[in-house]
């Protein structure tokens, strides 16, 4: 299996508009962060895209990715779904739409906002067939587990993909460690987890919460994502355990 971090930044990215780098060193390219999205690739080379970030086109070009085999959404917030139109080019040459999946409420909201993507319009074909997660157990040669996690007053979906002896968990935009989340991620080899900043936040995990989740689920390796301008790459890397590291755009991990 393989993890590709397409984007590792919070909703405003790093730097923020106005060239605001906060505490991040602008001379370190690992601090230049687009909005969060990842790809999980199976040992057969099939790719699952999680979230269509606002920066999706730029991310796919930067990582030389021209196709994916399925799309998942964690929730419908703009930084996680408003790049959805960039899926249109990956529909070219396919026999049919790409399969897409999300939790019930996210499906409802995405259909309401982007109906043309899921039903076609004015002669344009359907880009994605959108289904709920209830009966999904296998995708792109990998088994799938998922659970809903509080994201402040909203919810976000955490995913786990297992292929052979390897496993990748993804839990972004979370504000609470639930029993179901720990159970879903328990024993995961690689955990990619929300870590907005060091101080507590009402809708996101902070550093201590992220490390607590990693410890409680026994993750072998941990990657911190959704990082804001206070989270300088080198500083965070120096203060976390050896098996924990901050994400950066273009990061590739082979399992």
Tell the overall outline: globular
Provide the CATH topology: Metallo-beta-lactamase, Chain A
How big is the Rg?
17 Å
Query: What structural class do you assign from the helix and strand content?
Result: alpha/beta
Q: Strands of the biggest beta sheet: in what spatial order?
A: 6-5-4-3-2-1-14
CATH class assignment: Alpha Beta
Quaternary status? single chain
Q: Could you give the order of the helices and strands?
A: EEEHEHHEHHEEEEEHEHEHEE
Percent strand equals 25-35%
What's the pLDDT, averaged over the residues?
A: 97
Using the 3D structure, state the CATH architecture: 4-Layer Sandwich
Number of domains: 1
Distance from first to last alpha carbon = 5 Å
Q: How many beta-strand runs?
A: 14
Can you count the helices?
8
Q: Percent range for helical residues?
A: 10-25%
Descriptive notes:
There is one protein chain. The protein has one domain: Ribonuclease Z/Hydroxyacylglutathione hydrolase-like (Metallo-beta-lactamase, Chain A, 4-Layer Sandwich). It has 8 helices and 14 strands. Strand 8 (142-151) and strand 9 (154-163) form a beta hairpin. The protein has helices spanning 56-62, 78-81, 88-91, 104-113, 115-119, 179-185, 207-217, 233-239, and strands at 2-7, 37-41, 47-50, 70-72, 98-102, 128-132, 138-139, 142-151, 154-163, 166-171, 190-194, 221-225, 244-246, 252-254. A 7-stranded mixed beta sheet has the order 6-5-4-3-2-1-14. A 7-stranded mixed beta sheet has the order 7-8-9-10-11-12-13. It is of the alpha/beta class. InterPro entries: Metallo-B-lactamas (IPR001279), RibonucZ/Hydroxyglut_hydro (IPR036866). Keywords: Hydrolase.
């Amino acid at each position: 299996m393989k993890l590709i971090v397409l984007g590792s930044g919070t909703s405003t990215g790093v730097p923020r508009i106005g060239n605001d780098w906060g505490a991040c060193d602008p001379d370190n390219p690992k601090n230049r962060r687009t909005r969060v999205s990842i790809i999980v690739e199976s040992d057969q080379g099939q790719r699952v895209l999680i979230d269509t970030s606002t920066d999706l086109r730029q991310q796919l070009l930067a990582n030389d990715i021209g196709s994916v085999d399925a799309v998942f959404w964690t929730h419908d917030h703009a930084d996680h779904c408003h790049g959805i139109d960039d899926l249109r080019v990956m529909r070219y040459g396919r026999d049919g739409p790409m399969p897409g999946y999300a939790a019930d409420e996210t499906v409802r909201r995405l259909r309401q906002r982007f109906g043309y993507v899921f039903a076609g319009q004015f002669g344009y074909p359907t880009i994605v067939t959108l289904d709920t997660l209830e009966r999904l157990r296998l995708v792109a040669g990998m088994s799938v587990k998922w659970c809903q996690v509080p994201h402040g007053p909203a919810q976000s979906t955490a995913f786990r993909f297992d292929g052979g002896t390897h496993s990748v968990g993804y839990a972004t935009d979370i504000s609470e460690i639930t029993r179901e989340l720990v159970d879903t991620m328990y024993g995961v080899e690689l955990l990619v987890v929300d870590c907005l900043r060091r101080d507590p936040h009402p809708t996101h995990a902070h550093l201590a919460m992220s490390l607590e989740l990693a410890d409680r689920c026994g993750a072998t390796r941990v990657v911190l994502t959704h990082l804001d301008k206070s989270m300088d790459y080198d500083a965070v890397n120096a203060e976390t355990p050896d098996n924990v590291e901050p994400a950066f755009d273009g990061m590739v991990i082979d399992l």
